[in-house]
Amino acid sequence: MIRLLATGVLALVLSQAVHAQQGKPVAMPQAQAAADPAAAMFKAWDKNSDGQLSLMEFRAGWQQAQAVVKTQAALGRQFAALDANHDRAIDAGEYGNLLLVKNAGKAAPPLARFDANANGKLEFAEYVKLVETLAPQEEARKGTNK
């Protein structure tokens, strides 16, 4: 998924960079938006839905894509560090050591809640879902303790 996003972003960037640098809007037919990741990315970046990317829309989308890539890389490093037995998954023992799970205490959801393929472990995509679910709760708690 991460590679697909990065590939879509890079395809869009490479094919449209010259036009964007010149400040010219880049047109994209609506039918293509549903056909491939680059078209979907284009549609998401086209904030005013005029079928063109202005330089401002392109920059905003590019910055957002860079933030996503950085976040995914950081999560990948965390995941690798948490995977003590290096089996590319977080098992029940490793799950209990997750800071987000420890901080949630008794309210922590069981591993099975995020184990989409029911193999008793969390692969990376499942780990990301866990972080997306528990991290906002962690941020809210920090805000109330200030």
From TrEMBL:
Pfam families: EF-hand_5. GO terms for molecular function: calcium ion binding. This is EF-hand domain-containing protein. The lineage of its organism: Bacteria, Pseudomonadati, Pseudomonadota, Gammaproteobacteria, Lysobacterales. Residues 33-68 form the EF-hand domain. It comes from Thermomonas brevis. InterPro entries: EF-hand-dom_pair, EF_Hand_1_Ca_BS, EF_hand_dom. SMART domains: EFh (SM00054). Keywords: Signal. Residues 1-20 form the signal peptide.
